[in-house]
Automatic annotation (TrEMBL):
Residues 171-275 form the Purple acid phosphatase N-terminal domain. GO terms for molecular function: acid phosphatase activity; metal ion binding. This is Purple acid phosphatase. It is an enzyme of class 3 (hydrolase). Residues 287-502 form the Calcineurin-like phosphoesterase domain. Its main location: secreted.
Amino acid sequence: MKTFVMLLPILWVLVALHGVTSHEDHPLARIAVHNAIAALDARAYIKASPSVLGSNGLNQEWITLEYGTGNPSNDDWVGVFSPANFSAATCDPENNMVTPPLLCTAPIKYQFANRSNLNYKRTGKGSLKLQLINQRSDFSFALFSGGLRNPKLVAVSNTVAFANPNAPLYPRLAQGKTWNEMTVTWTSGYDINEAEPFVEWGPQGGQQTRSPAGTLTIDRSSLCGAPARTVGWRDPGFIHTGFLKELWPNLVYTYKLGHKLFNGTYIWSQMYKFKASPYPGQSSLQRVVIFGDMGKEEADGSNVYNQYQPGSLNTTKQIIEDLKNIDIVFHIGDIVYANGYLSQWDQFTSQVEPITSRVPYMIASGNHERDWPDSGSFYGKKDSGGECGVLAQTMFYFPAENRDKFWYSTDYGMFRFCIADTEHDWREGTEQYKFLEHCFASVDRQKQPWLIFLAHRVLGYSSGDFYADEGSFGEPMGRESLQKLWQKYKVDIAIYGHVHNYERTCPIYQNICTMTEKNSYKGTLNGTIHVVAGGGGAGLVKFTSLQTKWSIFKDYDYGFVKMTAFDHSNLLFEYKKSSDSKVYDSFNISRDYRDILACTVDSCPSMTLAS
């Protein structure tokens, strides 16, 4: 009877999922949960081992599932659930459940029972190896028959848990509001009424100091709609951010995350290190990686993201392997593709932790983070799954004046980056337009010659098929609103995501190439080079068959871009594929300060003839 009580709530989770099948692009929508029934079978079983994880300090480990049934089928599948016990005393009324118990948590992921067992249909026995990460709660595993369209719950496993589910995890570095400030954000299970969060840090090999951290969290009322408020809801834990100030340029620092319990006990993370940012204008080797639309992928091949972000792990892997040659990373929107399933944010921060714990990881807002009807977003679609920007704004730090207005600037040595929020109005006369003009106008180009514009949606140029079908070859109103700013302030490169491929234009202004050279630019560009770098991992987008004069290079594949500033006069731009990290497109810019000052069309004010 006890087993049945535990199984029944899981069934109600699946039934509750029926209300979110409109989110077609999320893999969990493949499950016809409205057809789910309880079919507990005494002959069916599923066992998980080991039952305790993380005793060696690891925060991700592999477990083994052994399962069997008396009536096997190739449609049988295994779902991963956390928390392990799905009995919920209350549930958001948006769930529209009519029979208790009311449940608010979806499966985290799933795999078919025959994935690694070719004889499963004949023997009725199988096994799987799954990777789990520490997500502040225990886990259970459920065996279903009937396939994804008519699921029947037949067995549930024992529980599995990490030794310290509350441990401080997944540090995310980001630049602060001044050049000599680094922030570190992490997740834990400790509220401030249980423990005091802090960062212990200092120069590598030198004296260490402690800086207190602020703590935030999210509840259902913070979110805008289903599934985020209903079946996609999962307690996100507590998000802490510490501010490491007055750093020396380019100096290596070490840090570790700490929580002091009120009984005097300390809980520590492992030790990490990072290199402080250079002074704005400082001449040193500076290397930047940029991509959009990466999302997450399961290392164990679980179907929840199988063929959904197939390039994500490759992009992550290549960046990790080259991290010693990377100083800062920009992920320009469509970060996780959680689409209202909050458990995916933990899984993403675990995936990128080897990057985010070592170099600043700066994000931009995309449609899958922000868009929701009547929430203030520029687009009235439901792409965020009810998150309406709250998860992105809380899980990651970025130096904006208002976290809901996701535009900001940040300096890295010889670079000035102006990051737009395409999910809020950018048109002339708006608050964001004024910010962008100030960001462009306020940079000292003698000290910071490389002026870069970043945004999620393509406000410039793209040959992606859906933009071409609209006849706009970019976001409608994008170029019309911003190209005079790019030209006036001589923005060198504009980089976008949203379209899941790679494309580079000539230096261009008002649809006309301003240079005929394609790979080695010398002197004044006379326009802005526009790049789509949306192939971070999500499913690829085809190009239109229409040919445009401004498109120099296209690639229907996964990849990312890297910019290297050697000094104030020489910049190298490279596009690398995620499959092998080899360079498939590149150009360089060589020029002097006088070339930046030189007048081009619509870039200089009228001159007086007075002597």
